[in-house]
Amino acid sequence: MENAAQEEVKEEVNIDGGREIPEAVEYGTQVAPAMFDSTEDQIEMTKQANKILAEKLEAMRKESVMENKQLRVDMDKCLQILKGHDKPTRASQERSIAMRKLQEAIMWLGMDNKALHEQNPYPNSMDPTNAKVEPTADGLKM
Q1: Which of 27, 43, 102, 115 is deepest in the core (most CB within 10 A)?
Q2: pLDDT tens-place string over residues 35-46
Q3: Are the C-beta atoms of 109 and 72 separated by less than 8 Å?
Q4: Residue 41 falls within a domain, yes or no?
């Protein structure tokens, strides 16, 4: 009985306007048409899908990097206010800890940019013979 149902389904596979389907893939008791005419079609479709995915991932990466940089700048402004560069402010252990935590947050967002494969803003930092200290990335005053 199942074979008769499979044969009936196989006859109805031709759903794309008369084009002959060269092969069909069997799933349990149903038969579905093959999605591609050849392996080359599969490869081409996969390449196109991968290209689209890579473009979307790159756009997301760039957006994340820009967001991190903006957050770092905004946190640095808060840090400068907390440090009292514009006007004298109250000194306390709590404010000192808050300043340290802002500095750490700025640093961790920089590490996130590194994880996103953003270019190192300190190109000579790995050279032990280099005596030059690069300015802080993103124009931060820290």
Answers
A1: 102
A2: 556 788 888 889
A3: yes
A4: no
